[in-house]
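Hello,

Our lab assistant flagged a job as stuck in the queue for most of the afternoon. It eventually completed. Since we weren't sure the result was trustworthy after the delay, we are filing this so someone can double-check. Below is the sequence as submitted and the structure that was eventually returned. Let us know if re-running is recommended.
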Amino acid sequence: MAYIGNKPTIGNFQICDAISVVNGQAAYTMQVGSVNVIPQSANHMIVSLNGTIQKPNSSYTVSGSTITFSSNLVTGDVIDFIQILGDVLDLGVPSDATVTAAKLGANSVTAAKLNNDIISGSTELASEPADTDEFLVSDAGTLKRIDYSLIKGGGITEVDRWLMVDQTLANAATLGNWSRHNASITGVPHGTGMSASSGIWTFPSTGVYEITFMTYIWHGTSGTRQYVGIDIKGTNDAFSSNTQSIGVSYSNVITNNVHNNLNVNGIYDVTNTSNNKLKFVTTSDGTCGFYTTIATFKKLMET
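-- returned structure --
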């Protein structure tokens, strides 16, 4: 068979199994590996009979997997070979590791061809992911998995509120005798909650906290002006040697039985729950009563 230009070098080329001629028979079944094969047409075949290439649709015709010669063959005739070209644009089954990304057409891979362990976006997650659900992130160009628990915002995860028993305290006293505010009213703690021992506060987890302190103060000495303050003090060594003020507020009362308010707010970055502690300390030039004292703790974000 002649070609204009270069002969095709790709296609589903197959050589049929050897066929024994039957005297007086023109039609024969074509097989490859004992399995019937069906050429696209007679023009997609090269047939050699008795050493001569046969002309398609003249010397033979094809119907399904049957080739029929134009005349009955006789004893002594030899079907040398039947080569099926197939569709010369049909590559058949590619060899392993031969299909590259450049050979795939745009949008050629659909969800129907993806296994369920492939991230395709075809299935909706209708609720917040579990902490162990994973996302893909590019870490300096390298694609990595990361648990949702490590990237979720989470909102406010810790809120706690405590009340102090009414006390009369002098200068530099640490405020103690705390109890958690009524949970049935405030819903605290939200999260694990704070803990206090002898006026020293321990945080439930690392993070940036907002501390709000409010108290109703009373003059303790008749006929004198008295200043009163409250200092929120933090530490990074459990108050072994280091103390740092993170919020302070002052007010004053003038005469006996006069009341006033103190309010103070501070931000504390807790990086180590064993070392970062907190306490509320009075500053005054005398003795003062502290009533309706409330401390609120709110975790704003991870550290």
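-- support follow-up --
The delay was a queue issue, not a problem with the job. The result is valid. DSSP finds one helix and 22 strands in the chain. Helices lie at 183-186.
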